[in-house]
Amino acid sequence: MKKMLDWPRCFNIINGIAQGLMYLHQDSRLRVIHRDLKTSNILLDSDMNPKISDFGLARTFGGNETGANTSRVVGTYGYMSPEYAVDGMFSVKSNVFSFGVLVLEIISGMRNRGFTQKNHRYNLLGHAWMLYKEERSLEFVDKCVEYSSYVYQVVRSIHVGFLCVQEQTEERPNMSSVVLMLNNDGVLPESKQPSFFTGRDIKPNETSHSSNTASSVNAITISLLEAR
């Protein structure tokens, strides 16, 4: 399956999810907030086109409503926005945060939750941000993905992912802006350090539990390949 995921297919998945969320947020008769957007809820059809699935936890809103507050937080850690995980506040920008995590997972072939590296103990977002700030973003790309002819688009997609996982909801773009940024060459806003940037450096006498053993997204834990 990994051999099927060259960069054009990866980008098609990323762009397709973005288009789907844009429809749910602004083009659907009722605004839909998914609340459990993650890799296992993205299905791929026979042409590798993504379909957002499992709306069991979704909430719908009419009119100008864009979010709500709840005392019962549901969903999957690793994809939840900080305002939802901590305060129970969810909105279209919560979906944007989850999308940003998905982008970074798809590009790297690794999961945010449970991610480990032998050189540090940052999570996937922290690891990606470290490489990005050191202008080493291409080291973040799954080695099984052929991207040599698409370097600009790869780096731009990583940047868009970071814009989506910023801590403050008002600093995250809406999904229509995300679609435009993914498909155009305009100047991107500067991204701030992602929320949930966690981890600590390993001291010389410490050893990591794993060396680059995060489970692969491109292997493929966008798990069900048959459209339902």
CATH superfamily: Transferase(Phosphotransferase) domain 1
Count of helix runs:
6
Q: What is the name of the CATH class?
A: Mainly Alpha
**Tally of separate domains:** 1
Helix content: 25-40%
What is the residue-averaged pLDDT?
84
What is the CATH topology assignment?
Transferase(Phosphotransferase), domain 1
Poorly predicted runs of 5 or more residues: 199-228
N to C succession of SSEs: HEEEEEHEHHHH
The secondary-structure class comes to mainly alpha
Largest sheet, if any?
A: 2 strands, antiparallel
CATH architecture: Orthogonal Bundle
Strand content: 5-15%
N-C termini distance: 19 Å
What would you note in describing this structure?
The protein is mainly alpha-helical and 228 residues long. The protein has one domain: Orthogonal Bundle (Transferase(Phosphotransferase), domain 1). The protein is 34% helix and 8% strand. The chain has six helices and six strands; from the N terminus they run αβββββαβαααα. It has helices at residues 7-27, 82-87, 92-108, 124-133, 151-164, 175-183, and strands at 31-33, 42-44, 50-52, 59-61, 67-69, 89-91. A hairpin with a 5-residue loop joins β2 and β3 (50-52). The longest helix is centred in the first third of the chain and has 21 residues, at 7-27.
